[in-house]
C-alpha cells in the first residue's frame, strides 16, 4: 500500500529550456542534475513516484514491456537511486487522471503534483508544486522544500 505519492511530470520538471540549449547529443532528455533534488523529496517523505507525464506511454511496471524510451527512463532513474512506482491512466486531463488514480489507490494519505502546467487543477491546486522550465532549470530547491512541506505537513 502507498501512503504518499509524488505525481511527476518530466518535461519542464526534469528538463528545461536552458538544459535543451546546453545539452549535447550524448546527453539524454532528462537533466540528471535535477534527479538528486527529486531524490531528496523521496528520501525525506517516503513517497512513491507516479508518472503523469506524457512520457508514461513509454513506461510500464514490467521492464520488458517498456519501449526504448521507457527503458532509458528506468536506467536514468536507477542511476540516481530512484524508481517509478506507477503511472496515471491517459484520460485527457491530468487532474482527472490523478483523481482516477487516487480513487483506485485509497490508501494514499498525502500527495504532491510536480508539474509545469498552468491551470486546470481544480481541487488538486493546493497540492501543486509548479515549476517553470523557461526560468531556471525546472525542479529547483524552492520546489523541493515546498513538496516536502506538502507531503510531511500536518
Question: How would you describe this structure to a colleague?
Answer:
The chain is globular, with a radius of gyration of 15 Å. The protein is built from 5 helices and 5 strands. The chain has a single domain (4-152), classed as Rossmann fold (3-Layer(aba) Sandwich), CATH 3.40.50. Helix 3 links the parallel strand 2 (48-51) and strand 3. A 5-stranded parallel beta sheet has the order 3-2-1-4-5, covered by helices on one side. It is of the alpha/beta class and 154 residues long. The chain starts with a strand and ends with a helix.
Entry summary:
The protein has five helices and five strands, in the order βααβαβαββα.
List keywords for this structure.
single chain; 154 residues; alpha/beta; Rossmann fold; five-stranded parallel β-sheet
Per-chain topology:
Layout: E1 4-8, H1 17-22, H2 35-45, E2 48-51, H3 68-79, E3 84-87, H4 94-104, E4 110-115, E5 128-130, H5 141-152
Parallel strand pairs: 1-2, 1-4, 2-3, 4-5
Helix pairs in contact: 2-5
Amino acid at each position: 500500500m502507498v501512503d504518499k505519492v509524488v505525481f511527476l511530470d518530466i518535461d519542464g520538471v526534469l528538463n528545461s529550456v536552458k538544459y535543451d540549449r546546453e545539452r549535447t547529443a550524448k546527453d539524454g532528455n532528462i537533466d540528471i542534475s535535477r534527479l538528486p533534488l527529486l531524490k531528496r523529496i523521496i528520501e525525506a517523505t517516503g513517497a512513491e513516484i507516479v508518472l503523469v507525464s506524457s512520457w508514461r506511454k513509454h513506461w510500464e511496471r514490467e521492464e520488458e514491456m517498456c519501449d526504448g524510451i521507457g527503458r532509458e527512463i528506468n536506467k536514468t532513474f536507477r542511476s540516481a537511486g530512484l524508481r517509478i512506482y506507477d503511472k496515471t491512466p491517459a484520460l485527457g486531463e491530468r487532474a482527472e487522471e490523478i483523481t482516477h488514480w487516487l480513487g483506485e489507490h485509497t490508501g494514499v494519505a498525502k500527495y504532491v503534483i510536480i508539474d509545469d502546467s498552468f491551470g486546470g487543477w481544480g481541487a488538486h491546486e493546493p497540492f501543486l508544486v509548479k515549476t517553470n522550465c523557461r526560468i531556471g532549470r525546472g525542479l529547483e530547491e524552492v520546489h523541493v522544500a515546498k513538496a516536502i512541506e506538502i507531503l510531511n505537513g500536518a
